[in-house]
Batch of 4 targets.
Target 1
Amino acid sequence: MSQNWRPGDKRPDVERMIRVDQAGEYGATRIYAGQLAVLGEDSRAAHAVAHMAAQEEVHLARFNELMAQRRVRPTILQPFWNVAGFGLGAVTALMGEKAAMACTDAVETEIDKHYEEQLAQLGDSDPELSDDIRRFQAEELEHRDTARAHGAEEAPAYPVMTAAIRAGCRLAIELSKRF
């Protein structure tokens, strides 16, 4: 998309972007909460998850702030993302630490792609939002790399599990944009 706007050009829907990003960060905090509930505090993976969860809380706080400043309504699906996120985190952790890390790998891979698409749509139209997205995208990639360093790719049925989780992420993104 062109960075020089002309009459008739389609502009990015910033309200939808903020709504879906807030929903995604909320979902991430719930996934990590589910994983931590199962993993406990003493495992190597739990320490990594706790660090990633703390960063997701910062992301969520920022999108909550942007929603208030710009008067963006949250998705009506937030109660569902609460349960679904926690459930996904808990189930993958019950499958083992590597499966929990495969979940993180899948989610963060999809979020990286999502943020990249948003940055392309934004161009130079909203530097504040673009800066936030770039910063959070870098941390999401760090989470993906951490998950891989903790054996994500060694999880049982890794290709199938990550493909299913990524598809779920894409669906959640589309639904949160609309509702």
Target 2
Amino acid sequence: MNGKNTVLFREEQRFNQWWLWLLILVPTCMMWYGAIQQLIFHKPFGTNPTSDTGVSILLVLFGILLPIFMNSLKLITEVRQDGLYVRFYPFHLSFRHYPYESINSYKVREYSPLKEYGGWGIRYGWKGKAYNVSGNRGVQLELKNGNYLLIGSQRPEELISQMQNAIKNNQ
């Protein structure tokens, strides 16, 4: 393997907040219940039921695809010899590469996902761009182009330590 592509640090994070999964699974279970009632027992759910075709489409969208999609979401952060790599799957088809030469400074910091960035995911706030899925800690990058990037991490000290090692080895 090429030395530049050697992974020194890798962190994979998923949305695992109980309240988020409750928000997903309650409607999913209701969708399944309604679909079973209407399609199998021929007891339409509610006073103004949709057609069997409509129920089938809703079941596929909200009863199957939504939970699969939410389970597939993940933030992958890698430190390699030639820079920091970030991928928010499935939105990024490949890693976003941030060469060390493009980074002015970096630090571990606590943040408020809701107040500073409006939530979790790929977010844009008044403090720049953020990639985060859980928690309130991460690594804040100041890029040489003047932009700021926050990468949420459950292990921000280790991430910074490996970045420092990679930068030192590149000098």
Target 3
Amino acid sequence: MFFNVEGANKKSEIKQQYDVVIIGGGPAGISAAIYALQGGASTLVIEKAIEGGQMNLTDIIENYPGFKTIKGEELSSLMKEHAEQFGADFYDGKVIELKDEDSHKTVVMENGKTIKSKAIIIASGSYPRKLGVKGEEEFSSRGVSYCASCDGHFFKNKKIAVVGGGNTAVEEAVYLSNIAKEVYIIHRREKLRADKLYQDRAFSRNNIKFKWNSVIEEIKGKDKVESLVIKNLKNDEVYEEPFDGVFVFVGLVPETSFLNKDLFDFDEYGFLITDENMETKVKGIYAVGDVRKKELRQIVTAVSDGAIAASHAIREYVNEDQISSTQSINRVRS
């Protein structure tokens, strides 16, 4: 999948030192930038793709306060404009290492640049978890997809499968039902985990059908996906059925590949563990949004994480003279 980043206004040259460096330009990172700037901190946002993160993959957002409905790309653009208005620097690049060097932190970029800061906020997000079955890699972008709004149009009047039972899977199945002839939700349990709102929509669509207690064991085809090998977990029946494509929504994997695993604490799924201030066990390094261990991963909780982390970083790690001049403003605007 590709995004049009023309006019993104990312800087090719940046300063060697900032008060706060934010890794990731999704809703958590942009929120952190706004609150850091509001607190008087010089702030850099590093994003290797496009600001907004996975919001850009969401066709319609219906649960962000203030907007009855809004397209993911539009909300991403509005958030970035908001941060730019406050004076955030945006930089296009990939972080390969973080260093904790007592008096400061250092961000090491893939291109060799290094940036010093008083605090770092990790907002690197996550990426779709794969099924790990035979044929998945082979047919990626040839019938296997992880983004309905990106690839759904390729399956007009086709028969497709959606794997998963959570909010994302069911919401995307409803979206795809407007394009495809038949949509089968394949779920390993006997009921969905999605919120009732999404379940009701799925159950009301005549062209959405369900395969309960089922998993995909193999994806088959020649030049593209042609069939799925499915196993019924109740009776162990294994059968092959024709499909034109499969969309996978079975969870997220946190993007932490650039972190020294000895420095941080992670849960069993690889998400960063933080305290209530979003601070990791490394003082001055925070984790926000989809990269950290949390119960609810939504845009509204991501922006909340970013605000909390930035506010705490300002209080704890930005110079006292900056704090004293902004405390009253923060209290009024909070």
Target 4
Amino acid sequence: MMKFVPVACAAVLFLAGCAHAPRTAAPAPAATPQTEAPATASAGVGPDDNLNAVAWSQNASEHDFIYLQTYRNAQEKLLEAKKDPSWDALPKDDRVAHASLKGLKPAVILDIDETVLDNSPYQARLIRSGGEFNEADWAAWCKEAIARPLPGALAFTQFAAAHGIAVIYISNRAKDLDEATLANLRSAGFPVAGKASFLGLGTFVEGCEQSGSEKGCRRQRVARDYRVLMQFGDQIGDFANIAGNTAQGREASMAPYAAWIGERWFVLPNPTYGAWESALFDNDYALPRAERRQKKIESLRVK
């Protein structure tokens, strides 16, 4: 998404994904509550907050089954959505062009990190080293271009492409990671029709001013040429712009689209990082690890 605000995202840019990149423990540079790529919680402050999350992501059959059932459910609905000329998965604010939808080509939009590509090995490295997300290590990981496809993602995207549906990836990975990301997608077997099918963080959209890493401008760019049948992501910012990264702001922004979940919007699990986490400590990554961790503990319900 990437799409980024991971458990320690690089720019707590929260509205993504994979997009999306992670964050640092130091003050976030011009960060907004949107994001999309990885990070880690509080390694070195008592138990590592990210250990169970990463262990689950890598080892639990349940993790794989959730991805499989999500993509299989979407695939079962995809061709019916294509047949319906009024079907569109873009929120109202992003459908600023071609409101009639007539004559637009069909497409699906997917975040990358933790939506189609698995970056859990990067998270595992942070846990083993006791570190937190940093731009250099994240970029090095991306440039290895070895992230594996997540269960079901490959089959779904290949099915869509085979049925004349454009597969478009919107990611919040930094601009200098574009080529490595495309190489990773292609080597993993994902359909990539060309550079136009990948809209990274540095994408310029004429007439639209992007705020932080929110993906609204790029969705608007897609809207100029496509009727979007479905969207996929691990952050709610992968689907719509969020007014404010608080519990109330997140809920209010998504409420109008609750009926679209599992029909037009398909949300995937990411317990390792995200805007959900930074919302628990007021999006303030400048806080020491211990203080961030304490605020997360205080957010827990006991009844």
